[in-house]
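TICKET: design request
STATUS: open
ATTACHED STRUCTURE:
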């Protein structure tokens, strides 16, 4: 991503860092537990961008696997219901009940 003002790539700030005001007040931005307990430690334990990205990708992959599993299960149930001679009637009845039970449906 480029900075539209000067055409340079944005500067990625340190994971967490201290901002010191003229009066000596220090603010920890964005803040981490290690520095809260010991403000003078060499390095914080905040995750770096690569670690955060890796964690988000793992969460995405887990969500995709869960979705595929649920999709397979739902498709299997629908196929079993439709294979019955009265499958269409069952599905129609279920759809009607779903509309009636929906929180937004007028009663």
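STATUS: resolved
RESOLUTION: sequence designed for all positions
ATTACHED SEQUENCE:
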């Amino acid at each position: 991503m480029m900075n539209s003002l000067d055409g340079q790539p944005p500067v990625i700030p340190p994971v967490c860092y201290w901002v010191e005001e003229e009066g000596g007040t220090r603010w920890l931005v964005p803040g981490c537990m290690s520095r809260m307990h010991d403000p003078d430690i060499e390095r914080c334990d905040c995750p770096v961008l690569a670690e955060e990205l890796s964690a988000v990708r793992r969460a995405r992959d887990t969500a995709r696997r869960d979705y595929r599993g649920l999709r397979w299960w739902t498709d299997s149930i629908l196929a079993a219901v439709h294979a019955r001679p009265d499958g269409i009637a069952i599905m129609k009845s279920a759809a009607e009940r779903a509309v009636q039970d929906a929180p937004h449906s007028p009663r």
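CLOSING REMARK: The radius of gyration is 27 Å. Helices lie at 33-37, 49-83, 87-101.
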